[in-house]
Amino acid sequence: METGEDFGPWLARQLKLAGKTQAELADELELSRAAVSAWITGRSTPRPTVMADIARVLGTDVGTVHTRTTDTRAGLPVTWYHRAGYPDGGRDLGNAAAFAFDADLQVLARETCQNSLDERLTENGRPVRVRYTLHELTGEALDAFREAILWNDLFPHYSAVSTAAGNQKVGRVVDAGVRDMYERGRLVLLRVDDYNASGLTGDDYADGKFAAVVRRQLESLKSGPGAGGSYGLGKATLWATSALGLVLINSTLSVPHEGRTERRVVGRLELPWREVDGEPYAGPAWFGRPDPDSPGAMVARSWWADEETVARLHLTRESDEPGTSFLIVGAHDVASLEGNSDDDESVGDEEGDEDTRDICRMHGRLVKALGRDFWAAMTGGGGRLPLLEASVRAFRNGKEVVAEKQVDPAVEQPARTRALRAHYEGTTVGRLTEAGQVAARSVPLKLPLSGGAQGTLGTHQGVLLVTEAEGDRDGEKNQLHSLRGNRMTVKKAGVQRLPLGTNPFQAVLLVGEASGESAPFAKEAEEFLRAAEPPEHDRWGQTEELTLRWSPSAYRRISALMTEANSAVRDLVARPKRGSREGGEAVRKALTVRPRPKAKAPAGPVVPVLDKLDATVGDNGEWRITAEVSIPRGGEIVPMVPVAQLDVRSGGRPKLDWAELVAVEGCEVEDGTLRFPPGTRRAKFRGLTDATSHPVRTTLTRLVLELRAGKGSDA
Question: What is the pTM of this model?
């Protein structure tokens, strides 16, 4: 049950909303001003009989005065506030943040689910639950909803936008949305509810999550270091998915605001600049209670709604668990038309296939997107609970059209789910030898020093998992999915240069806090990789933030990580060579050709030889080398130490330090030493010299690379 607000602050706000002073209230109650002042300051509370008189004066019922969980309806009614046009004549023809994403349900699912993961309440250890509800309204249900959102007040603004629709993109989208509603007599609502999340806490205007989402652009206030978002752009997908640019919000707070937590309601409208009845309007508008503290009580702020109001607005939440409900009014899925019909689970008639507001088609695309991008967040095992539960359902005028479907990662991504569970349960193996096994290997990420400093902060060990693919159920085969702390798939790529005859597989790379919060440098890796993601959070690479906080070449550390991961995958999926007596025994017995005697391998250790070398000068004056090594047949292979030197005419060659030394294939790097598995014939490695160890400018020198036998760098 919700706890009501203290009587004093509640009464003070009701007087503001009703436009009454303490003195006027005292006169109407026939009490002293001191008595009212004592209530306001909390020194006393009115007797039950006086409560009834206060309710009468405020135009509400006695229950509202006693519980104080909602505002009274007296005084300033809920309305729309449209931001006035700029006095300098400037015009915004749409929210630029919304253009960062397509009007695509799969993009919406990715961004909203990521935001819910970021706001998950971690103290109880339970997952965040996210539910997507599609609801098509027609007839009386549509009329009732339009009345609830004061459509008649909004229509002149939509009409003005439609009139100028031919001049800019947002206007054309809005015009199409309004025409669809009137011509087809329908409106699609898409509500995104999350539970066990923080909710939109904080003041309407001051710093806080509420203001960051409802009042501001390009502001990201996330709850933890492993958060997925960082640009403050993800929330724009909500408005981009609405053909009417309209989103309504109902939030249950994890931290009380104004003494309350339930049914904090507000709406935001995103339209381009327009002129209505000769008055210019800048763009956005807010649906709420007029703020009596604003000039002329014009600005609308959030209000504490009653249960009847949230029901009329289709914003009723199933419980008092903290979280937020976003209602996208006029949802559409334009990007589904661009060659994505194979993604759909439902097939309609020819006209239906082109309908971007088909709720059955939208249901299927949401389920597929959630399973594709958040399978890891939905997976638990080994005593570890999943981070996320997600479901999708569809209604038409209150009647269920498509039953609620809980997204099951084992159904949507069976092979990858099996791999992650094996990692959690500690049942991975070193190499795949049987069906159903999951192989694991560590992959290093060498973290750079911040501020452009040369050197390495430390090495974080990511976890690579490889298992056989499950037919077509996993999607494209031979893929590597990479993810970090919130376990949303960030990077998807095929593994190249696979050996011939490789069996189909799926691979997963866990880095940052996804590899384990206790892993060395997990938080530092999380921060580094998060900075390397663009607004879409669908890859790691060069970004402005990465350049400013680390260096222009910092992204190469990620390239080295992915090179290591791909090399490890190729090694793990390589099929073992057949034994001399495997297969074709009957054919061999029928042959009379005498086998050629094998040459004996030389006894004793063998020394690898440098075969090929490519070297270039990097942006910071460092030498960047790629070297290939050939290894004679024989017994034990001697470990080798790569030594970089500068060529001089006389005297000893100055030795350079390595800033980075990584194995590519056929070898491993351990403390600067190359080690080779038995039987290896060729190997490849890469290196990056430390520019601070160069005695002269690199462009004035030549590089000499030697391989020296030994175990240490001074060998």
Answer: 0.72
